[in-house]
Write a structure and sequence with these properties.
Elements (H helix, E strand, L loop, with lengths): L1 H8 L6 H4 L2 H11 L5 H18 L6 H16 L1 H4 L1
Helix pairs in contact: 1-3, 1-4, 3-5, 4-5
Length: 83
């Protein structure tokens, strides 16, 4: 569910109103990502990268970009827990 939400979010980032929900999505993802599988975390990192790339340069997306970058950092630390 976490990776699906981030993947689908990338198709809505051209709509400014949809960008506003991304910090909420990030907070929910942070809350539950500890139960995700290693494969889901890898997909999440890719989807977050895609979202960051699509958001950069859009007006009023700075808060969403910062939230997504923080989430990406947390997700990158997650595979260490599977080792």
């Amino acid at each position: 569910m976490i990776t699906v939400a981030c993947h689908l979010a990338s198709s809505t980032i051209d709509d400014t109103h949809c960008v506003e929900f991304l910090p909420d999505l990030v907070e929910g993802t942070k809350k539950y990502m500890h139960v995700a599988s290693q494969d889901d975390i890898r997909k999440l990192i890719k989807d977050v990268d895609d979202l960051i790339g699509g958001l950069e340069g859009l007006e009023q997306s700075e808060g969403a970009v910062n939230a997504m970058k923080e989430l990406k950092g947390m997700a990158k630390d997650m595979p260490d827990k599977f080792s």
